[in-house]
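Sync notes, pocket subgroup
Present: LS, DG
LS reminded everyone that the earlier model was apo-only. Rerun requested with 3,4-dihydroxyphenylalanine included. Inputs:
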Amino acid sequence: MAYTVPKLTDYSRAALDRAVSELLSALGNEASKVKDESEWKTFRDRWMARKNGVLAQVNDLWLKGAPKEVKREAGQKVNLIKEQVEQAVAGAKIRYQIPILPTARVNSEISEVDFQRDAFAKSGRVDITLPGIRRPIGAEHPVIKTMHEIVSVFQKLGYSVAEGPVVETDYYNFEALNFPPNHPARDTQDTLFIAGQQAKPQRERLLLRTHTSPVQIRTMEKMHPPLRIVIPGQVHRNDPPDASHSPMFHQIEGLAVDTNITFGDLKGTLDHAMKALFGSSVKTHFRPSFFPFTEPSAEMFVSCFICGGSGRRGAEPCRPCKQTGWIEILGCGMVDPNVFEFVKENGYDPKKVSGFAFGMGADRIALLKYGVDDIQLFS
Ligand code: DAH
């Protein structure tokens, strides 16, 4: 039966939506049946005639009678309908003018895209007037996605997110993290210095931060203990780019300070985080290491989630873990009392509080997670 415009009495959103959708479905149906010029004219007039066309009736029956509160919304709906009708009328004409195509998208259940594909398959040609296949624009970068995942694991444990500047002073990047001036540990971080800083005292000189650890100090200066934070961010080092190095990369730092924080807390927290990130069957393993700002310090490994810890993938050696069955993921340790000394006045008396810290490279983790073998592909 031909569609007639109903008189609206119920102006609730649901009723309006239902009325609009019935109208549009009738429009699509009728448009799809237009096969020649004369049918098209009838179709056009039925929907667009100034007097008594469907559009005119919609205007009279839906808009004029609409209560004040819904006038705006009803107006928007009517505008949408008007656009759709105009498009359908124009489209119907183009369709019957292109005879090679199946004439109708008869079943309104079929999406425009399926219809187009179908038409293409049947005719071997394509109607270029049909709308194209819309592609969603962009996706999250794998490194950023990985960072979000890591941050959210810690947020669920009650950690907050802190951030700090990428251009940093020597004080925060080194001195307050217990790297004394001229200490050889500074050499392990090939720093990019900002030019023209020589006139300043060393601690004020600017550089590109080599790690996210300076935000530990910056946050402890601002917030009293207890503290639990994760710090995602960009860092720079003077490393020539190759498959596993990039002068800019990303780290995620963590810091927990409270009374009586122990190395056991560190191990438990990081073990949980690794299981949440890489799957509940991964094991963790800690080896002694050295960082100036933690004592004791450790490197943490996870059992290789690529080969399951066997070091082999079938007959092949497992490359990501270099056949060891273990992958190094992060550096960590108990906050060195010398670091607390720099923020002692803010409640961080090393005799009263203790804490652990950790830092990991997000790019490296993303490489492993997504099986990408060249960090340059991320830039
Ligand atoms: N900042 C270190 C680096 O970039 C990583 C690190 C090691 C951070 C131990 C920490 C930590 O917080 O406790 O190599």
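DG: The pocket of 3,4-dihydroxyphenylalanine is lined by residues 211, 213, 253, 291, 294, 331-333, 357-359 (CB under 6 Å).
LS: The first helix runs from residue 13 to 33.
Action: DG to write up.
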